[in-house]
Specification:
Largest sheet: 4 strands, mixed
Number of strands: 4
Number of domains: 2
Structural class: mainly alpha
Radius of gyration: 26 Å
Strand content: under 5%
Organism: Paracoccus aurantiacus
Oligomer: single chain
Number of helices: 25
Protein name: Glycosyltransferase RgtA/B/C/D-like domain-containing protein
Shape: globular
Order of helices and strands: HHHHHHHHHHHHHHHHHHHHEHHHEHEEH
Keywords: Membrane, Transmembrane, Transmembrane helix
Mean pLDDT: 93
């Protein structure tokens, strides 16, 4: 072959690589656009009635003492910070944008960790594709503005930074400290993420075996522990200074009234997983389908093909054992909450691309070719499976005015306009179990209903010891609550059973009903009951004219 032909072939190869890189970049941009559209267009979920309101209410109220909140606080503080940073955006839009940014952190972290551990573009893509294709994450768990997705990027970073330090035999204090901080932040976003911590804590004292115990404690366990303490300081402060209040919300609620409510109302939620067998079937439907199953296949295949390259001595096996133990612990502890919901089983998903990357790292260079083919096929199948849902996200982008976030804000603006026209703006709180709408309108609500239905519905199941620790009102408390501070309006229409006492009060006290179809979500259409003061204000205005 002549020199000119050699140069031409090299140039052609470079053009081919450049075209491939452009195609991959375009695919990534398309997937991110689809993800954004799906998040913004995803139907409003009842869980958001509890997670979103603190973004506004924390300005004047304290979490736990003034507001019922049955989770650890970092997610509430994050939504509040984003609301302060973007005050011109609608309330739900900011919260959903926060979820999208969490997705970017998750996908970007997965890509960086995959590349750092393997130096393989295929493995760098594998983690992000496995997440963005997971059916459970394209549902409520990853689309709604709740705390379900928020722990995942921090758990991934914590495990990933630790794995990098072990695999590269570079026990950087800064990196290990950051790993501890990330794991604690994950647990501060959602208490169930604490499941990753025991395996890490124990593993740092036992592995790698080539180090003596004193060195492991000083060089590995200590920086991770210090980072963990720093990341958990706000939680430690709350646990020490507000012990009864804090644990009443994040522990006693889930162990007592929450279970009692669902035992009595299981028929209202088809497929509710109350027993162990039901939980197992639910977990199976999350883990053993689609992208999670393919990710597990790749991870197991990488272990089965292990033929360590003697030219690359490292501690990948130690990292693999710790990550595998953390993943298994997260899977086991997912069965603890009762009842089970799909979002409880997403934690172990963060471990699968890490395990695959560590398995890849432990392979000989010759084995990479065969595994790379399997990984490419797995990623292609993942994207095919996810295509319908992601396609819907792209379709949502065609009409941003039809985003759920836009519809909620328009409904909220109309609500404010109606109260203003009726002379009721500022005349009292709006009573509703759907607090996002009045809060998005800048209207006052009752703090007792800041968690939507979640505190209200457990009132009959809350014992006398817990009741004083919850800022809550049940159906029997409505007359006294409304007598002390009469509502300017009552909004119902989304849960006939729970809202019946609100409507009974409205009828008994002369409130005027009107349908409000502009406020419609998957749970129903709003019915607005205006205070009798609206009629009086209208008559007074007519007299002056």
């Amino acid at each position: 072959m002549s020199d000119r032909q050699v140069i031409g072939s090299h140039a052609g190869a470079r053009r081919g690589i450049a075209l491939r890189d452009v195609a991959v970049a375009a695919l990534i941009a398309l997937l991110l656009a689809a993800l954004f559209g799906r998040i913004m267009g995803y139907e409003l979920r009842r869980d958001e009635f509890m997670f979103v309101p603190p973004a506004v209410l924390l300005e004047d109220h304290a979490l736990y003492s003034d507001l019922f909140y049955n989770h650890v606080p970092y997610s509430a503080w994050l939504f509040r910070a984003m609301h302060l940073a973007l005050p011109w955006m609608g309330l739900l839009a900011v919260a959903r944008l926060t979820i999208f940014l969490a997705w970017l952190l998750l996908l970007g972290s997965a890509a960086w960790i995959g590349w750092r551990l393997t130096r393989s573009a295929v493995m760098a893509l594998f983690g992000p594709v496995s997440f963005i294709s997971a059916e459970v994450l394209l549902g409520q768990a990853g689309m709604a503005a709740t705390n379900n997705l928020l722990p995942l990027p921090f758990a991934l970073l914590g495990l990933g930074l630790l794995a990098i330090s072990l695999a590269e035999r570079d026990l950087s204090f800064t990196r290990l400290f950051a790993a501890g901080v990330m794991l604690s932040i994950a647990a501060g976003m959602k208490a169930s993420a604490i499941a990753f911590i025991p395996a890490v804590a124990i593993g740092c004292f036992l592995l790698p075996r080539r180090m003596d115990a004193a060195d492991r404690a000083r060089k590995l366990a200590l920086p991770v522990a210090l980072g963990g303490i720093v990341g958990a300081l706000p939680l430690i402060w709350l646990a020490v200074t507000q012990t009864d209040l804090f644990f009443a919300h994040i522990a006693a609620y889930h162990a007592g009234p929450h279970i009692a409510f669902w035992q009595d109302n299981a028929a209202s939620e088809p497929g509710l997983a109350l027993g162990s067998s039901d939980k197992l079937m639910l977990a199976w439907s999350v883990w053993m389908v689609g992208a999670p199953l393919l990710a597990l296949f790749v991870a197991v295949l990488s272990w089965a093909m292990m033929r360590r390259d003697p030219a690359r001595p490292d501690d990948s096996n130690s990292a693999l054992l710790i990550v595998a133990a953390a993943t298994a612990t997260a899977a086991l502890l997912a069965f603890v909450p009762t009842p089970g919901f799909p979002q409880y089983y997403i934690g172990p998903l963060v471990g699968l691309p890490l395990l695959a990357a560590l398995g890849w790292r432990a392979l000989s260079l010759d084995a990479h070719r065969g595994l790379a083919i399997a990984v490419r096929v797995a990623m292609a199948l993942m994207l095919v499976i996810a295509l319908p849902r992601l396609g819907l996200g792209l379709n949502e982008l065609r009409h941003p005015d039809k985003f759920t976030t836009a519809k909620v804000q328009r409904g909220a603006d109309l609500l404010r306009q109606i109260l203003s026209d009726s002379g009721l703006d500022g005349a009292g709180p709006v009573a509703t179990l759907s607090p996002i709408y009045p809060l998005a309108a800048g209207l006052e609500i009752y703090p007792e209903f800041a968690a939507g239905p979640f505190a209200y519905r457990i009132a009959p199941y809350t014992d006398a010891e817990l009741r004083p620790l919850y800022a809550m009102a049940g159906a029997d408390d409505l007359p006294a609550l409304f007598e002390a501070s009469p509502p300017s309006a009552i909004m119902t229409g989304f849960d006939p059973g729970l809202e019946a006492p609100f409507e009974d009060y409205a009828r008994a006290n002369g409130y005027t009903p009107q349908d409000l179809p502009a406020i419609t979500d998957r749970y129903g259409s709003a019915r607005l009951w205006l205070s009798p003061r609206a009629a009086a204000a209208t008559e007074q205005t007519g007299d002056t004219q």
